[in-house]
Write a structure and sequence with these properties.
The chain is α/β, with parallel strands linked by helices. The protein has eleven helices and eleven strands.
Length: 297
Amino acid sequence: MKHSHCIACHQNKLKVLEKYSKTYLVQCKSCKLVFSQQIPTIEELNNYYKVYAYDHDNYSQLTEQRYLDLLKSFEKYRVSNTILDVGCGNGFFLEVAQKQGWKVYGTEFSEKAVEILKEKGIDGKLGALDLANYSGGMFDVITSLEVLEHINNPVEELSKFNKLLRVGGLLYATTPNFSSLSRLLLKENWNIITYPEHLTYYTKTSLSGMLVNTGFRKLVFNTTGFSMSRFYLSRQVSSKENLPNTENTKELKNTDEKIRYRMSKKGLFSLLVITANFLLNLLKMGDTLKIYYVKSK
C-alpha cells in the first residue's frame, strides 16, 4: 500500500524524489515534509524490529553526563515528578533519570528491550504509544530521542504527546535533519535514509509547523552537529569497494564519542566545534533537530 496524501497536512500534492526511489521518498509540495510513500506491512516491521540491534556497549560516563545535563534542563518543569521516554531502547536515559528521583516510564517496540527495562525496574510498555496505558496530563516531561523518524503518523504521535503532558509540560525531541549538510553532500547515500527503519524525514520548517498545529509552543529549536563517523561510514558503504569490516565500523562509531570527550576539555578544539555548531544552527544545516516545546493548550 502507498500513501496518496501527505501524512502531515493531508494534501494530495506529492512530488516523487527520483534519487531516493529505493526508499520510496516523496515530498509534500504544501508543507514540504519528506516521507516514505510506501507503507510497510506489520510483517515487515515485526521482522525488522525483531532483530533490531540495541548497543549495550554505547554507554559511557560521558553519555551519562550528557543525560544529567539534559535532566538538569528539565528541572523547572518538574511538578508531578513524572517523565516518559517514547522509544527508550534499553532504558539508559531512564536509568539516569530514575537515580535523580524521577518516576520513569518508557515505550519500546522490541520485546527484548522491554524485558531489559523490567530487569531495571522501569515501567516499559511494548509497542506504539497507547493513550490507554496512561492518564491524560500525567507527565511533566516527554522525551523522544531519535524516534520520530521511525513513524509514519507524526501528527497523531505529537497529538498523543500533547494529551499526555500537563499544560505547561515539556516535550524534548531529537530527530535527523533532512536539510543537514551531511544529507546535502551524501544525498541518497546518507545512511540515515533506510527503509523500513526510517519512514519520515523532517526539516525545521516541516516539524515546527506540526508542533504548533498540535498545541505546542516553541522554547528552543536548534539544528546542530556533524557526525564525522556517520559521514565516513555512509561514503564507505555507498562505495562498491573497500567496504568497512566490523572492527572498522565499531571504531568509526566511537569517533563521535571521542570528539565529545575532547569537547568536554576546554581549549581550541572545543572552541572550533562550538563555532561550527553555531554556524550549522544558523544555516539550519546541523545533522540533528533538537526541540524544547511546551504544551500550550
